[in-house]
Amino acid sequence: MPDIAFVKPALPRNGVLVLPMTEGDPPAGLAQEADGATGGLLVRALEAAGFKGRKGQATTLHALGDWTKVVALGLGKAAELKPEAAEAAGGSLVPAISGDREVTVAADTLDPQLAASLGFGALLRAWRFDRYRTTEKEEDKPKLERLAIANANATAAKTAFGPLRAVADGVFLTRELVSEPPNVLDPAEFAERCRGLERLGVEVEVLGPKEMKRLGFGALLGVAQGSAKEPRMVVMQWKGAPKGKKQKPLALIGKGVTFDTGGISIKPSAGMEDMKWDMAGAGAVVGAMAALAGRKAKADVVGLVGLVENMPSGTAQRPGDVVKTYSGQTVEVINTDAEGRLVLADVMWYCQERFDPRAMVDLATLTGAIIIALGNEHAGLFSNDEELAHRIIAAGVSVGEKCWRMPLGDAYDKQIKSDIADMKNVGGRPGGSITAAQFLQRFTNGKPWAHLDIAGTAWSSKDQPTVPKGATAFGVRLLDRLVAEMAEEG
Amino acid sequence: MLRVQFRRGPPDPALPLLLPVPEGAVLPRGAAEAGFRAAPGEVFEPAAAPRRLLLGLGPAPKRLALEKAGAAAAARFAELPHVALDARGQPAEAAAWIAAGVALGAWRFDRHRTRDVPPALLRLTAFVDDPAAARAVWEVAEAGVRGCLFARDLVAEPANHLTTRSFAKRLEELAEFGIHVDVLGRKRLTRAGFGALLAVGAGSATPPRIAVLRWRGSFDAPPVAFVGKGIVFDTGGISIKPAGGMEAMRADMAGAAACAGAMLSLALRRSPAPAMAVLALAENATGAESYRPGDVLRTLSGRTVEVVDTDAEGRLVLADALHHARGWRPRGMIDLATLTGAIVTALGHCRAGLFGNDAALMSALAAAGEEVGEHLWPMPIGESHRADLHSDIADIRQCVPPARGEGGWQARFIPDACHAAAFLREFAGKHSWAHLDIAGVDTAEEAHALGPAGPTGFGVRLLDALVAARFEEPDHHAAP
Questions:
Q1: Helices (H), A180-314
Q2: A456 CB near a chain B CB, below 8 Å?
Q3: Do residues A363 and A284 lie in contact, with contact meaning Cβ atoms separated by under 8 Å?
Q4: How far apart are CA A455 and CA A432, in angstroms?
Q5: Domain extents for chain A?
Q6: Which of A118, A233, A391, B22 has a CA 20 to 30 Å removed from the CA of A79?
């Protein structure tokens, strides 16, 4: 991971130089200086290479003057330059410089906030998960060690970067959890990693099978019973609201199935390796808690994750089983592969009962149907609260984690009626993501709640500007922003 | 269809009686005890001879609540030939909309039964305070009902009876209502270059057709255009469907039927709005002449399309139909199609998917749908949906092939409804356009609030309400 440093504007004599430039504008500041130093060759060479300054454009010039490499980085139109665009530009820069050790970015004319965003974008993109590579050749490894961002107000840029750095650390924690193989990251190990948040000031409690059995978590334990790995529930509390301004907490809840075989209703084998990331909802909650604590958010937030492994075995739960949830409601298990909602049911009920939160937001890689509905660009958003839904959509837009509202309603709720219990755990193919949300809604006890189905967005099969392919940590930045907007304002 | 009369005075005591009850009204003895709350569509039948039925209307009933009450009555009194409605003391429109509900609920499709045909409700006499006022509302309501039932009849018709030719013929019969009908046959389609439609229809013994229905309206403006998918039977073609449930594919023309029904409604109520419908009729059959996966087609627009799956034929015929409709520079284009299974996975059977490029038109459609009980839900067309349609050989590919083991778990799930909408958008050009994917709502498996199991006529009353709300005044701000 490269260091991101903010420095006073000065043109480096040699090495690698990055020139962020807006569309249609002549070079200014250091870029203008660089052009002068090359006798106008910079501008002419960029023109010849077709560089226009468009968003996402990164044009590399080799051996220009004494610089081994100059990268012109398009920011789009100056009038439309927002933090998101600066982040994306920073991200797009990374592939062009990953083979260089030290790089200077001439962001001297940018607003310090935008300079910070550019660094943030680069940092997010530069993340890699290399823990299990042992034979990679030195020349194949990324070399970038230091990204020095020159800015007229370097101090302000550095200050603006502080909280972004904390959010990036939250994102990285999530990506790491999501990327870890399932033989390493089982529920106990996941809970252990949650304990790591204690050093940031988060209170962490871990409940094991005994405690959950005593409480009556019949649904969560039913899912876990087929696995040799013990389940866990982790409760994390960040108490950041200023004294005298104590508030009902916001609650974040995550599905953490550390591996999902489907259980007795076993999944087809193709692509099953991806089921290691069936804990991405829980991963996002942990990352968001780390981000909030890392930037010392002035809000009270609780995070709860239900951690299980869903395995087929002689002790596994069967289709047809009826389980009693912590709420007292009974569920007929029709399909053991619809296990996420069973885990969430107990955790959600526990959460609302213990914390009486002002709102609950759950994240879960819950259904394949949400990918059929929306694809991979939007997460599905379900909510019983208009204001909460609008805030989530707005937060998502501002951090590039888009959500699309999906419907709820009695007609869908009817689909999960059971002949033997209070409900069944699947409602058939039609509206499959909606009936899953209807199921969860029965465990909100009428409290304001939103559910994000992130099955299509938690993992990316291709690189995006600020997200390398693989674990996206979708939700961390959204939740961080949501807390900022909902609980920290005023 | 049901015969409806409005009369003054007390109801004929010899007739079975419908008694509408707004929520909060004083209930007859026994009703409250039986749990009757007068919610919309709720009924209560006390012991009486002739039979009597209390119809719940809910609080401050509007059109939809009244229609639901009427339809519930029709379901209960389905086999009584003549029924009275006592709407005295109710506003004039109440009687008319309840009658509309009775007519929708009493619809049957018995054409192909030769014996043991159950008796049907044929006649309703409404007793009201002001028959003339009730009749005036009924004229509007009846237009919507007849359009809807016209569509249901078409959708119910089996594919050996409703071929592309006979469908076109049924549409030509709409001329008697003042609708101008022009049917393009194979020669004209070939000359004009309807390459996508011709390919889809190539495997069938009955050739494809484009039917253009036009209603002049009463002012001079570009029309609002409805575009309908009319696949009279969809085998899937060479990408043939599994056998189980294939009989339902006779309803794959429900979009075209809804557009035709809406045109009939507009004509019957003499709507001032200029309107038109372009209906793409074809049978997607398997045959020696069938088009193939891998084929590249030149559409009417000139754009080339790579065929990936011959069972994604609806978007192909619509591509040509949408382009054809653009020739009239419509104020708005709305296409209706039983297009994808994905929309059923997404939204189930109680909402249709709403896509488009014009937020104002989309919200007007959603509002019209709420008014008539045909619910829509907005769905996205994202950048990646369009990008997924990149073709290596043509301008665009028609859909995304299923993953063959690669791409991981997510690749098993394809957002085909969004892909289809992204595809259609390319052929709508810059026109104000919306697309309704009605695959989940065209046919009801069980009796529903406004009718028996079977075709719902979804879209007719919605389009009629949309035109009434949005297109009946000349619009000087219409997009070119």
A1: 187-195, 209-215, 218-224, 280-294
A2: yes
A3: yes
A4: 13
A5: 3-154, 166-487
A6: A391
Q: Which two tokens stand for residue A413?
A: 């709720």
The residues of A annotated as belonging to the active site are: 267, 341
Task: Assign A490 a pLDDT band (cuts: 50, 70, 90).
Answer: low
Neighbours of A271 (CB within 10 A): 17
Q: Which of residues 147-176 of A touch B (CB under 8 A)?
A: none
* DSSP, res B409: G
User: What's the CA gap between A125 and A3, in Å, rounded?
Assistant: 13
Distance between terminal CA atoms of chain B?
Answer: 41
Residue B464, CB-side half-sphere exposure with 13 Å CA sphere: 30
Domain boundaries, chain B: 3-140, 162-470
Question: Alpha-carbon Rg of chain A, whole angstroms?
Answer: 24
**Alpha-carbon span A57 to A52, nearest angstrom:** 8
How far is the CA of A161 from the CAs of A83, A112, A151, A158, A222, in angstroms? 12, 9, 12, 5, 45
Per-residue exposure over B133-157, b if at least 16 CB sit within 10 Å of its own CB, e if not: bbbebbebbbbbbbbbbbbbbbbbb
What are the phi and psi torsion angles at B7 (to 5°)?
A: -135, 155
Asked if B39 has any chain A CB less than 8 Å from its own CB, the reply is no
Of B351, B409, B440, which has the smallest distance from its Cβ to A275's Cβ? B409
Which residues on adjacent β-strands are paired with residue B6?
B126
Q: Catalytic positions of B, please?
A: 241, 315
Q: How far apart are CA B88 and CA A101, in angstroms?
A: 88
What is the pLDDT, as a whole number, of residue B480?
Answer: 40
Give the fold, CATH level 3, of B162-470: Aminopeptidase (3.40.630)
Residues of chain B positioned with their CB less than 8 A from the CB of A416: none
Q: What is the mean pLDDT of chain B?
A: 96
Q: Does A410 touch chain B (CB under 8 A)?
A: no
| Per-residue confidence band for B479, with pLDDT thresholds at 50, 70 and 90 | very low
Helix (H, G, I), strand (E, B) or coil at A207: strand
**Class for domain A3-154, per CATH?**
alpha beta
**Alpha carbon A360 to its chain's center:** 17
Strand A300-310, strand A379-383: pairing: unpaired
Residue that is written with structure tokens 């942990």 in the block: A286
Which residues of chain A are within 8 Å of residue B412 when distances are taken between CB atoms?
268, 270-271, 368
- Whether residue B352 has pLDDT greater than 70: yes
Ranges of beta strands (E only) in B319-387 are 332-337, 352-356, 376-378
The pLDDT score that the predictor gives to residue B474 is 86
* B404, pLDDT greater than 80: no
Strands (E), A372-416: 379-383, 403-405
Q: Is the CATH code 3.40.1110.10 the one for domain B3-140? A: no
Place of tokens 């990352």: A287
Cα–Cα distance measured from residue B126 to residue B142, given in angstroms and rounded to the nearest whole number: 14
φ and ψ of A148, to 5 deg: -95, 115
Contact list in B for residue A407 (CB cut-off 8 A) is 347, 351, 377
φ/ψ of B19, rounded to 5, equals -125, 100
d(CA B77, CA B70): 10
Question: Which residue shows structure tokens 């755990």?
Answer: A425
Q: End-to-end CA distance of chain A, in Å?
A: 35
A412 touches chain B (CB under 8 A): yes
CB distance B346–A275 less than 8 Å? no
Contact call for A376 and B384, based on CB within 8 A? yes
Chain B CB contacts of A270 under 8 Å are 405, 412
Per CATH, the architecture of A166-487 is what? Answer: 3-Layer(aba) Sandwich (3.40)
Q: Cα(B479)–Cα(B477) distance, rounded to whole angstroms?
A: 6
